[in-house]
Amino acid sequence: MSLLSRRRFLKGAGAFGLGMAGLGSYAFGIEPGFILGVTPYRISPTNWSPGLRLRIAVIADIHACEPFMSATRVRGICELANALQPDLTVLLGDFNGGHNFVSAPVVPEQWGEAVGILTAPLGVYAILGNHDWWHGALPKFRSDGAESVRRALYHARIKLLENDLVRLEKDGKSFWLLGLGDQLAHRVRRGVFSGSDDLDGTVGRISDNSPAILLAHEPFIFDRVPARIDLTLCGHTHGGQVNLPIIGSPFADRRFGKSRVYGHTLEAQRHLIVSAGLGTSIVPARLGRPPEVVVVDVGMEAIA
């Protein structure tokens, strides 16, 4: 290699190294900790009641922990959700931290006080996620079967739906809100889980023809969701969390297709929206999928 070629090589290698270092700093520091967006969707399901316009604020995968998702930051996220003036606010599970790369836990009493400021005319509802079942405030803490999360939500005056449903009404028009138990709640052995979910039993309790919305932490169940459900809202995937150029996401579970990782999918008149959520699991990094609060306007024309 000539001296000139060697110099060019070293300069290129140095630039590449600096670029990767900068990208790493952004992924581990800036995007997960300082960026927060609002992602809007407008949908008009085929069987939706004419004239029923509904705004839903969606908060998913908080994964509370210091310093990335402090109680103060959770409160700020909830203030943003309130500012969207939703008719209904839903929380899609995984309140507990998702990794041990932290300076301190944020216990349920702390994040529970923060989410307690959420308000919406039709109420605030929640479901549980797998991390709420698997362990305590952090993965190194013993599981209590999600009891501490249930208590925190109760004291925050947030209604928890576990294979349960509620009939709500706006402007004289009713709709159903269903919340599914977590599909990965119980570890059977490494990589094998059983759920606490009962989709058929929950849907079977719908007692009239009003439209219906389903909350499910993991989106993989969507293939089983019947046509009776107009909209399914999910989290869990973090939108891939770390989305590398060309490679994609090494953390995304794509067994059920890319449409189950992030965004809006329409299949056979059934709508699915998967939120990128707010916190992190496995590693405290995000790249190409910053934290978001989702706002869904139902009963309106889709955004072009």
What does this structure look like?
The protein has 304 residues and is α/β, with parallel strands linked by helices. The chain folds into two domains: 1-34; 37-298, Metallo-dependent phosphatases (Purple Acid Phosphatase, chain A, domain 2), CATH 3.60.21. 24% of the residues lie in helices and 24% in strands. It contains six helices and 16 strands. The protein has helices spanning 3-34, 71-83, 108-115, 130-134, 147-155, 199-203; strands at residues 37-43, 54-59, 65-66, 88-91, 104-105, 124-126, 159-160, 164-170, 173-179, 186-189, 192-194, 212-215, 231-234, 263-267, 270-274, 292-298. The strands form four sheets. Strands 1-16-2-4-6-7 form a six-stranded mixed beta sheet, covered by helices on one side. Strands 8-9-12-13-15-14 form a six-stranded mixed beta sheet, with no helix packed on it. A two-stranded antiparallel sheet has the order 3-5. A hairpin with a 2-residue loop joins strand 14 and strand 15. Helix 3 (108-115) runs parallel beside helix 5 (147-155).
Please give a quick description of this structure:
It contains 6 helices and 16 strands. With 304 residues, the protein is an alpha/beta fold. It folds into 2 domains: 1-34; 37-298, Purple Acid Phosphatase, chain A, domain 2, CATH 3.60.21.10.
Keywords:
304 residues; alpha/beta; Purple Acid Phosphatase, chain A, domain 2; six-stranded mixed β-sheet; 6 helices; 24% strand; disordered N terminus
